C-alpha cells in the first residue's frame, strides 16, 4: 500500500520518518510504500540462509538482515532486502552510517536475497520482487540476487552479466549453484523448507 503524501520525500526525510507505529516502509520513487507483514516461513528461510552463510565462513557481522540499500530509480528509492551478504567494503560503508543504509555511491554487497510474498504477475508483491528490484539491483551493480519463492516452490539465482541478470532456476532436489559461493551445498527444497 502506498502512503499518499503531497510531495516526494528525500532519502533523509525517509530515514527520519516515524509515524508512531511499528509499520515498516520502503521508499520507492520518493513515496512511502507500506511493507506487508512477513510470514513465519519467509522469516525462517532468511534466518536459515544467514546461518548457512555463517557456516560457509562468512563472518556473522557481514550477514545483514533488513539493511537498506539505496538504488537508482526515477526518484529516490531505498530497498530493504530480507538478507544481505556484505563484502568487507560494503559492510564498512553500512557500519559507518548513522542508520543501516548502503548509500548509492558506496561498494555493493556480494549478494542480496528476497523471499517473495504471495502474488501474481501484475500484482504489487510480484512486480516489486520479480521486476522492479531485479532492475534496480542490476543497475546498482549487485553481482548476485536470489529470489526465494515459496508459493511457486522456486529458487532463482540471478547473476549480473553486463547490465542485466542471467537467471538460473532451481526446484525440488536440484543443487543450487552460486558463482559467488561455489562451496554452497544446498538444494532448492531445503531452502524452501527453511532447512527442515
TrEMBL record:
Keywords: Endonuclease, Hydrolase, Membrane, Nuclease, Transmembrane, Transmembrane helix. One of its GO terms (molecular function) is endonuclease activity. Gene3D superfamilies: tt1808, chain A. It comes from the Bacteria. The chain crosses the membrane at residues 39-58. Pfam families: Uma2. Residues 11-188 form the Putative restriction endonuclease domain. CDD domains: DUF820-like (cd06260). This is Uma2 family endonuclease.
Amino acid at each position: 500500500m502506498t502512503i499518499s503524501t503531497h510531495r516526494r520525500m528525500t532519502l533523509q526525510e525517509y530515514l527520519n520518518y516515524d509515524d508512531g507505529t511499528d509499520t515498516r516502509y520502503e521508499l520507492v520513487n520518493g513515496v512511502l510504500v507500506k511493507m506487508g507483514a512477513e510470514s513465519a516461513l519467509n522469516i525462517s528461510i532468511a534466518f536459515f540462509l544467514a546461518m548457512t552463510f555463517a557456516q560457509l565462513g562468512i563472518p556473522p557481522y557481514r550477514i545483514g538482515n533488513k539493511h537498506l540499500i539505496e538504488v537508482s530509480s526515477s526518484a529516490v528509492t531505498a530497498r530493504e532486502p530480507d538478507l544481505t551478504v556484505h563484502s568487507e567494503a560494503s559492510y564498512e560503508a553500512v557500519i559507518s552510517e548513522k542508520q543501516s543504509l548502503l548509500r548509492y555511491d558506496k561498494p555493493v554487497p556480494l549478494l542480496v536475497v528476497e523471499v517473495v510474498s504471495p502474488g501474481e504477475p501484475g500484482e504489487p508483491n510480484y512486480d516489486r520482487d520479480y521486476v522492479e528490484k531485479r532492475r534496480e539491483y542490476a543497475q546498482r551493480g549487485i553481482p548476485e540476487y536470489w529470489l526465494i519463492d515459496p508459493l511457486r516452490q522456486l529458487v532463482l539465482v540471478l547473476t549480473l552479466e553486463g547490465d542485466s541478470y542471467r537467471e538460473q532456476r532451481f526446484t525440488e532436489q536440484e543443487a543450487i549453484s552460486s558463482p559467488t559461493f561455489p562451496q554452497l551445498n544446498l538444494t532448492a527444497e531445503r531452502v524452501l523448507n527453511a532447512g527442515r
